[in-house]
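Here is the promised in-class demo. Please do not try to memorize the tokens; focus on the logic of going from shape to residues.
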């Protein structure tokens, strides 16, 4: 359960407002508001003292000296939305994405910690999280139990001491997501110990079980998994509900399943909305042009979900599941003043947003009330090596074939790798993964990425190592040199000319700017790749998941070309 931050003097001051000895800062009067527990709409007045709601009901405060009173007659008020499954490093960072999301009513994140674990020691990560906690926004976190890829220093990053330090924090609400669950099924008692440690501390365990059979779901439930967000069909939802899982439905840039899943739930007449949540699951920036959790609510309403259920799925249900309704998900006495003011119940994008008692948006205007935080702790990517002719030797017999955006399988390479240029008549390209410090490389081919991409370089990847793809060795070298100049990012080069790029100057993987600024850069990159034969949905996720061993069937990792199903290295990395 999240830690209560109010001091005794704060609480005494809040109580004195009820007696009229002190005045609230803000009163929202004549508000038609959602009472999430009663599942009904009421009309009344909401008193706010700094970051806390001190009263909701028919009364007005006896003392209004210095109080701002806002008449909300004709408006609808709902709790601030909660995103329960945030990957906050998809080009954006936790601060920039929170600032962006708050403008559409999402004022609470439950966030993945994987990037923090990979980039910095716990002490520095915790210091950053403590700074974020001071914002007019609510941040909570997961504790990962595995890296989601093959790392030589996996046991160092995810040591027993490190994981338990994360689980000791009050703002860490869950363990997972369990992308490494096959290890658990194979008898990994270390992971099972962490699951039990999390549950003893009152934390949830989030699974990652795409396509899981009924027996697998039963086993994972016995091993301690409480919820899962991988339902892709109505049958997946039914199976998880029958085994007592909490179910989170996705509306993301690579899995936009939410609308058809909710339509199926409505059509079947299932009264299971109290056990459903929604997430955008780490979507890339441009997916959010039309919202975050408000986008999910809108999809729910369009699928025929009752408004009360739709709003609860994005607020109260999440708070109740994570045992924090004393603070979140409810417009009632004692909760954080996280409040969205809507034109009506069918318009989930708010006209005004209050988060922890601070007006962030008013009359559809961003009030620029979100303080900056120091992001320099992420450091930069200093590439102090060059790639030479001898590095571009492609002689491996096995390549990586893309089935879709994120699923890859092995294939037999027929093209000789001594050519400096490949034909654009086929969809095979050179593929390299290079250590960010220049110590090793892996050279192979990728099929199905594109037909006309000549030189492409990215330091945005699962591990922060450098991905090179292309038809032309010369353009691949050029793209790498540009990446080096930028201190990290994504670069597309053609005939020695830069076509488009995204600078990622924070650790080589994070954009140092706003989400609104990075969206057009991402769209330009996706458009340029599409023109050159990339026919999948989300190239950013392709880059992120090329190394991710929680997906089948073959991955290019720091250890080499890796067979996920056999859990072994097929072809090792080459030292430079």
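The designed amino acids, position by position:
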């Amino acid at each position: 359960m999240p830690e209560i931050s109010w001091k005794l003097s704060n609480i005494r001051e809040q109580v004195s407002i009820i007696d009229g000895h002190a005045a609230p800062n803000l009163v929202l009067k004549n508000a038609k508001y959602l009472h999430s527990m009663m599942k009904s709409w009421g009309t009344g007045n909401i008193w706010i003292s700094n970051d806390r709601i001190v009263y909701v009901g028919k009364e007005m405060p006896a003392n209004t000296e210095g109080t701002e009173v806002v008449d909300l007659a004709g408006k609808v008020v709902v709790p601030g939305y909660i995103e329960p499954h945030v990957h906050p490093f998809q080009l954006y960072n936790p601060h920039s994405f929170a600032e962006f999301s708050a403008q559409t009513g999402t004022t609470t994140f439950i966030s993945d910690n994987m990037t923090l674990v990979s980039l910095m020691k716990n002490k520095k990560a915790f210091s950053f999280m403590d700074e974020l906690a001071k914002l007019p926004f609510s941040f909570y976190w997961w504790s990962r139990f595995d890296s989601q890829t093959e790392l030589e220093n996996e046991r160092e990053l995810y040591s027993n001491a490190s994981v338990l330090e994360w689980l000791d924090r009050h703002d860490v609400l869950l363990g997972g997501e369990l992308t490494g669950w096959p290890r658990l099924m194979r008898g990994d008692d270390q992971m099972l110990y962490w699951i039990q440690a999390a549950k003893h501390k009152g934390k949830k365990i989030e699974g990652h079980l795409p396509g899981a059979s009924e027996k697998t779901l039963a086993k994972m439930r016995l091993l301690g998994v409480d919820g899962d967000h991988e339902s892709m069909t109505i049958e997946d939802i039914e199976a998880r509900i029958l085994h007592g899982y909490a179910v989170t439905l996705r509306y993301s840039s690579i899995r936009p399943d939410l609308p058809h899943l909710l339509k199926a739930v409505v059509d079947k007449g299932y009264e299971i909305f109290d056990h459903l949540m929604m997430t955008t699951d780490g979507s890339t920036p441009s997916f959010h042009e039309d919202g975050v959790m408000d986008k999910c609510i809108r999809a729910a309403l369009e699928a025929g979900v009752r408004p009360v259920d739709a709003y609860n799925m994005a607020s109260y249900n999440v708070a109740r599941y994570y045992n924090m309704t004393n603070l979140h998900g409810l417009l009632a006495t004692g909760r954080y003043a996280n409040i969205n003011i809507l034109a009506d119940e069918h318009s989930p994008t708010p006209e005004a947003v209050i988060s922890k008692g601070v007006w962030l948006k008013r009359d559809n205007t961003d009030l620029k009330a979100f303080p900056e935080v120091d992001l320099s702790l992420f450091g930069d990517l200093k590439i102090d090596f060059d790639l030479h002719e001898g590095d571009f030797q492609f002689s491996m017999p096995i390549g990586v074939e893309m089935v879709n955006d994120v699923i890859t399988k092995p294939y037999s390479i027929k093209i000789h790798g001594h050519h400096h240029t490949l034909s654009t008549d086929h969809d095979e390209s050179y593929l390299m993964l290079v250590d960010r410090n220049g110590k090793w490389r892996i050279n192979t081919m990728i099929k199905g990425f594109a037909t006309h991409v000549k030189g492409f370089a990215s330091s945005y990847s699962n591990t922060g190592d450098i991905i090179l793809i292309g038809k032309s060795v010369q353009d691949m070298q050029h793209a790498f040199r540009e990446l080096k100049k930028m201190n990290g990012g994504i670069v597309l080069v053609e005939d020695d000319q830069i076509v488009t790029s995204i600078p990622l100057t924070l650790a080589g993987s994070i954009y140092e700017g706003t989400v609104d600024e990075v969206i057009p850069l991402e769209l330009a990159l996706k458009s340029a790749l599409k023109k050159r034969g990339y026919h999948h949905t989300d190239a950013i996720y392709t880059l992120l998941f090329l190394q991710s061993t929680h997906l089948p069937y073959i991955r290019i990792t720091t250890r080499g070309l890796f067979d996920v199903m056999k859990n072994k290295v097929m072809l090792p990395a080459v030292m430079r």
